[in-house]
Amino acid sequence: MNLLLPSPLEKLDIVLNNNVKLYLKRDDLIHQYISGNKWRKLKYNISDLLKQKKQTILTVGGAFSNHIMATAAAANLHAINSIGIIRGEELNVNSNDNLAFASAQGMQLFFVERNTYNKRHDSNFVKIDM
Prior knowledge:
Order of helices and strands: EEHEHEHEH
Strand order of the largest sheet: 3-4-5
Helix content: 25-40%
Largest sheet: 3 strands, parallel
């Protein structure tokens, strides 16, 4: 599935004062998994990555994160590698549908303990051997 950009406008059948017409921007229709604010947050990172001819995007998130799913789908759509660092060392690819989807999209998942995850903003957060 490709991205539906720009997202369409839908005219609402509502009559407002002074004959004002009301339209709804349907960002939910951009993509099944990469829509609305997820697309708005990812589009610059993906664009910069492609311009710089980089091949991998890395993100961190919780096991039920829609961001993990959106990043995996966007990476798959653009044929780039993706890595997800997931909070919870007890988890695995089959822990829930979000993680299974991300893995099926080709995202490489790494599970870290919660104390380590809480240090994710440190410059030496996690070293991943690839």
